[in-house]
Amino acid sequence: MTFEGIEGVGKSTQVALAAEWLRGRGLDVLTTREPGGTRLAEELRRLLLDCDHEHIAGTTELLLLFAARASHVAERIVPALERGQWVLCDRFTDATRAYQGGGRGLPAALIEQLAAIAHPGLSPDLTVLLDAPPELALARARIRSSHPDRFEQEDLGFFARVRAEYLAIAAREPRRLRTVDATAGVEAVTRAVAAVLGALLAASGR
């Protein structure tokens, strides 16, 4: 299961709360994030978010993200799934489709080719898309951090394109993606996410 959305919509908070909700129902849950999740992937995350080094070309950024993802999938996600754990991931390939595809304008076909290499046959059973207008979400993100990372420094136009691509993915895959209004307070968003989780558990016979 993955959580998606632009900066400042509360993904990390909702991942933690969803994990707590599921554990309260007796499930074994692993939480993780992208880019990241392994030592190598966390190093690549640091490089990708660092504002102090040279400009990173879009294709370079894309390849680094998929290198991190391949490590994460092979070393963390697949072993957890094989142990029978529920995996909750803060971002996955939908983020690449939205940020590098929608935001940067990189070809969708290239992204899908790399996805097939990095995680062949593996995709989320369910994705929660936390949605909010870029103006609101970025204002929240900038309150949270006084040192915005390389992505957080992008302009509103970039995040408008990213959000539009996320919503397009949700429209194409309504069974997998559930869109939750992230403009409300944390408690209201948490209730909405819990409703999504409850429906998933019911469908799985839990």
Main beta sheet strand tally, sense and closure = 5 strands, parallel
- The neighbouring-strand order within the major sheet is 2-3-1-4-5
Structural class: alpha/beta
The radius of gyration computed from the alpha-carbon positions, rounded to a whole number of angstroms, is 16 Å
* Amount of beta strand: 5-15%
Low-confidence stretches: none
On the 0 to 100 scale, the average pLDDT is 95
Number of helical elements:
8
Rounded to the nearest angstrom, the distance between the terminal CA atoms is 16 Å
H/E element sequence = EHEHHEHHEHHEH
Helical proportion, percent range: 55-70%
What's the CATH architecture name? 3-Layer(aba) Sandwich
CATH topology: Rossmann fold
How would you sum up the global shape?
Answer: globular
Q: Could you tell me the number of beta strands? A: 5
Tell me the number of structural domains: 1
**What is the assigned CATH homologous superfamily?**
P-loop containing nucleotide triphosphate hydrolases
List keywords for this structure.
206 residues, alpha/beta, Rossmann fold, 8 helices
Description:
The chain is α/β, with parallel strands linked by helices and 206 residues long. It has one domain (2-32, 83-203): Rossmann fold, CATH 3.40.50.300. It has eight helices and five strands. The two termini are 16 Å apart.
